[in-house]
Amino acid sequence: ERGDAAFERGDYEVAQRAYGLALAQRGDPDVERRQQLSDALERAFRARESRQLRREQEALLFARALDPRDARTHSRLEEIRQALLAEGLEAARGTLADAIQSGDGFKRAITAFEGALELEPRNRDALAGRSEAHARRDLPKGRVLVSVPLEQVTSGSAARSGEIVRFYVDRTEVTRGAFAEFVADGGYQKKLYWSPIGWASREGYRDRTGLRAPAGWVDARPPPGTELLPVTGVSYFEAEAYAKWRGVRLPTDREWRLAACFDPKLGRFRRNPWPEGSEVRVGSHLRAAGSDPRDQSPSGALDMGLNASEWVRPDGEPTDPSGRAWVRGLSVRSFPYDIAQGVDAWRKHPRARFRHDSISFRCAEDVAPVPDFV
Q1: How far apart are CA 55 and CA 32, in angstroms?
Q2: Beta-bridge mates of residue 52
Q3: What is the 8-class DSSP label of residue 147?
Q4: Could you say which DSSP state residue 205 is in?
């Protein structure tokens, strides 16, 4: 009786002693259960006083097993779970920020987010953070990661889904030296790299030797000393074939805009890749890919503003029924009124077989999905 009275008023230490005296007189499974329950709740109380959430949680889980009907235990366990989740997410975000700053430590960040997922396996923030850490850990050399919450760039029901637009894109435009490897590997002769319409389009360029290299090349090689310049004089179909040869693809129009002009800190698109007021001017000649650090987008990609324009995939199908593709980015051949529009607004729709000495391209790649957390 003294034990039950003490238990009801929350004096668990006194209740334990009283139950212990009763058990010394006669063994009783129910009294033993009540003593264990009092002990668990006393340990939980002490842990709460010292702000040791994990120990309090452990004691309360044992108490819940002894008395599953106690609503107060269930309520407090949920409070602890939410507090631990918040602490875990904060620590995981800090670990990821440190990893981004140092360029390594992404495995620790993944582990930290998975620790939060143990408390809530479907937590949106933890899943997004873990995916971000995975994507940064697996970032291919020579590319940048573009990662944008969908609600920042769209509206409607999709914006409420918590989806992240995440992909890799080349840091610079494809160089002539890199494209020469595709040519040397017989890329122009291997049908598997070309779309049906692209392969058929080669007929329009044929002369006695056939289409073998970009316009202006001699003996299927770029002019000496130009290997570091962006490859130009290629059609959309040639760019598409090169990307497939590399095992990647061309970026879509939306992806190109996100990589070039979207600023996550501002939550909106910039007019140009570089910050407002920066002194970045169009030159008169193509420069080596990635050689001007001023022409850098918020994502870290270079040359998306004022070197060569670039082929991109229309959102949806590769080309429209009329055989046209899209070109993004200003170039050394841009007119003053083009430059006045700004990079984000400027876009052209030439025929996909069109070749020009100011149009280049870069490649993109999907980020591999992260396995479900178990």
Answers
A1: 22
A2: none
A3: E
A4: G
Consecutive H or E run containing 312: strand 309-312
Closest CA to 292 of 281, 338, 284: 281
C-alpha angle with apex 71: 65 to 74, nearest 5 degrees?
A: 60
pLDDT tens digits, one per residue of 288-325: 999 988 889 999 999 998 899 999 998 866 555 556 78
Gap between the Cα atoms of 294 and 259, Å rounded: 15
Other C-beta atoms closer than 10 Å to the C-beta of 199 total: 15
Q: How many CB atoms lie within 10 A of CB 73?
A: 23
Task: For residue 272, give both structure tokens.
Answer: 């140009």
pTM of the model: 0.82
Residues 6+ apart with CB under 8 A from 91: 112
List of long-range contacts for 276-279, beta carbons under 8 Å, 24+ apart? none
pLDDT digits (tens, 9 = 90+) for 331-355: 888 888 888 889 999 999 999 989 9
Residue listed under structure tokens 């998306």: 304
The predicted-structure confidence for 9-41, as pLDDT tens digits, reads as follows 989 999 999 999 999 998 899 999 999 999 999
